[in-house]
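go over this:
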Amino acid sequence: MAKNNAANEVSATAKYVRMAPRKVRMIVDQVRGKSVEKALETLQFSTRAAAEPVAKVLRSAVANAENNNGMRADGLVVKYAYVDEGPTLKRIRPRAKGSASRINKRTSHITVVVAPGKEA
């Protein structure tokens, strides 16, 4: 992030979301750089399950901008949106002949940064 514009950026994070980061990144890539209105509209009509937690984080970032920084919601743009990998829950599945295989239940950390500006 640029240091001179850091005061205008507001972020929100959802940690330990029980969804694989690869699946969430497909949704996050669709909203990056869009205005908040268009991003929420895109998420609302998406058929992917990951759209719901991403929309929740985006609404939280907009609320943070309005309530904590006094910004107006209609001029905000999704400046950054990224997904980091959280801890993996490791589970065991019994298999044939007494063996076992591992099931990895992955988690995600979703971060959305909004800032005033024009749509990219």
